[in-house]
C-alpha cells in the first residue's frame, strides 16, 4: 500500500466517522470509518518503514570499479 492510498483511507474513514450522519441497515458507519482509519495509519507506517530501508546504501567492497573501453566500428556498412 502506498502513501497516497494510506492517506485516502484515513480521509475516507474520517469522513465516515465524523462527517456522515446516515444509517445503513446492519452496518455501523462509525465502526467502518475507524477501521479504515486504522488500516490507513498501519499502511502509512508500513510504507514508511519499507521506504526507509530501501534508501540505505550498502557497500560490499572497497575495490574500485573496473572500467572497460568500448569502441564502435564504422567499417561495416549499415543494413538497408
Write the layout of secondary structure elements.
Elements: H1 3-19, H2 29-54
Helix pairs in contact: 1-2
Explain what you see.
This protein is mainly α. It has a domain at 3-54. The protein has helices at 3-19, 29-54. It is elongated and about 80 Å long. The two termini are 50 Å apart.
The helicity comes to 40-55%
H/E topology pattern: HH
| Largest sheet properties | none
Computed Rg: 27 Å
Given helix and strand content, the structural type is mainly alpha
Any low-confidence stretches, pLDDT <50, length ≥5? none
Outline type: elongated
Number of continuous helical runs:
2
Question: Please, what is the average pLDDT?
Answer: 84
Number of strands: 0
Amino acid at each position: 500500500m502506498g502513501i497516497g492510498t494510506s492517506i485516502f483511507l484515513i480521509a475516507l474513514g474520517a469522513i465516515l466517522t465524523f462527517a456522515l450522519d446516515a444509517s445503513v441497515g446492519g452496518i455501523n458507519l462509525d465502526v467502518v470509518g475507524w477501521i479504515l482509519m486504522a488500516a490507513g495509519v498501519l499502511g502509512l507506517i508500513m510504507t514508511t518503514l519499507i521506504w526507509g530501508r530501501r534508501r540505505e546504501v550498502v557497500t560490499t567492497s572497497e575495490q574500485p570499479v573496473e572500467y572497460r573501453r568500448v569502441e564502435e566500428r564504422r567499417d561495416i556498412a549499415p543494413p538497408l
